[in-house]
Design goal:
This protein is an alpha/beta fold and 133 residues long. The chain is built from four helices and nine strands, in the order βββαββαβααβββ. The protein has a five-stranded mixed beta sheet. The chain has a two-stranded parallel sheet with strand order 3-5. A hairpin with a 2-residue loop joins strand 8 and strand 9. The chain is globular, with a radius of gyration of 13 Å.
């Protein structure tokens, strides 16, 4: 599993493979403790994740809601239908909406033939740049 890294003033998390409960909780912890300012964004690329333990999703979902509610721009893409189904089992309604947004934007972008990030707070990112909401 890859670690959170700073690149071009953005925090990027690129989990891969089969994620255990502990892996998801570690991702949540890294995201919450990243020195993020409102000028920075967090990007999560789910495209290399094949499976995740639904028992670790509440910690990750709570972290994403907390970041979103504090005004941090969180971008996610590459979430498969399979991972979305797992997320819907393991998350509260508010947390599940975040993952549904990830999956919806991924699907729209796949139809255009491009990767598709979705922004939870701040601006909407597209494969061609960032647009303000």
């Amino acid at each position: 599993m890859r670690q959170l890294r700073l690149q071009n003033d953005e925090w990027i998390e690129t989990p891969a493979g089969w994620l255990s409960r502990q892996d998801l909780e570690a991702i949540a912890d890294r995201l919450l403790h990243a020195p993020v300012s409102l000028s920075r964004r967090i990007i999560i690329d789910w495209s290399r994740v094949r499976h995740c333990d639904f028992r670790g999703l509440p910690a990750l979902g709570a972290a994403l809601v907390r970041l979103r509610d504090s005004g941090v721009t969180v971008i996610g893409f590459g979430l498969s239908d399979y991972l979305l189904a797992i997320a819907l089992v393991g998350l509260s309604t508010d947390e599940a909406e975040i993952f549904a947004d990830f999956a919806e934007e991924t699907g729209r972008s796949s139809a255009r033939g491009a990767p598709g990030p979705v922004v939870l707070a701040g601006a909407r990112a597209t494969p061609w740049g960032v647009m303000e909401n």
